[in-house]
Amino acid sequence: SKLTSLGQLEMTWRSRVHFHPLLVRVLHKSRLRYYGKPEKKLDMPYQAYFEVADGSGMMSMVLWNSLCPEWYNSIKVGTVLLLEQYAIKNSYPFKTQPTPGDSQMKRFPAIEISLNVRDPPTKISIVPEEMVKPEWGLPEVKYRFITRSELDDLPNNHSCDVIGLVTFVGRAERARKREHGEDFWLYRWAHAIDGTSDQPFILELFATSQPDVFEHIHPMTYLVCTQMRVVRDLTEDPSSTIYLTTSNESQIFITGWHKGQPYTKDTKVKNFIQWTKTQSEADQMRKTVIGGYYPFPRPPNNFLKY
């Protein structure tokens, strides 16, 4: 069928009602958002953002309501989609923006693709990877992996991807989203090493929309976290309180989930796998810890400072 591109859509969307099909690759995936309120009678008040791209650039795509339970788990980072009968809208100005792995990629921030059950009823098709043709010009998924030795030089809020061997994982903890609200964020702390430094990555992992992964992080698993943000306490000694926290677009993977993921081709991931082959499993097991209370960042040494 006759296809259109994201670049053409941006130029012509105001003058049309029906759009030609789109062929795109998913580069980023946000956590699932529930926006239900007691007074609004919506059956499935869910929403999820994806960043999708073709040869012309990258645009946001929004999955709405009952399409979320149907499609959210099937659409992964790297998935190629054929979209038909979608709507184009002005984009929501306050949404989070992931940092693209390819800094040269053009962005179309003014509009977004809206996928709904009706008005119009969107048709989504997943194209198997073996059927994707090079002449379609779809970009590959690119990452920004860093090693632990590089972390100390990175600025606050820098976006990066990491891989490491888990040596500690804390219990799940809760923090209130708002001071007097009833909603909580669920999170846990983890340490992961990659052989490039004596220090581990300190990771604050909020529960994303991957409960099956979040609940099974344990010592000695290979952990990949994408779209993490650097957090530095710039007031105290900056080197002692550097850690990484998840963002809205973070994805977490553990041993058993890595097969077929686009990051397996990344050089730093391959280097890490080579390093793990030189390690003694028994030695590393002795150093691992699980559970317990983990106060971080650490309170000051004396009570006056605290």
UniProtKB/TrEMBL annotation:
It holds the Pfam family RADX. GO terms for molecular function: single-stranded DNA binding. This is RADX protein. The gene is Radx_1.
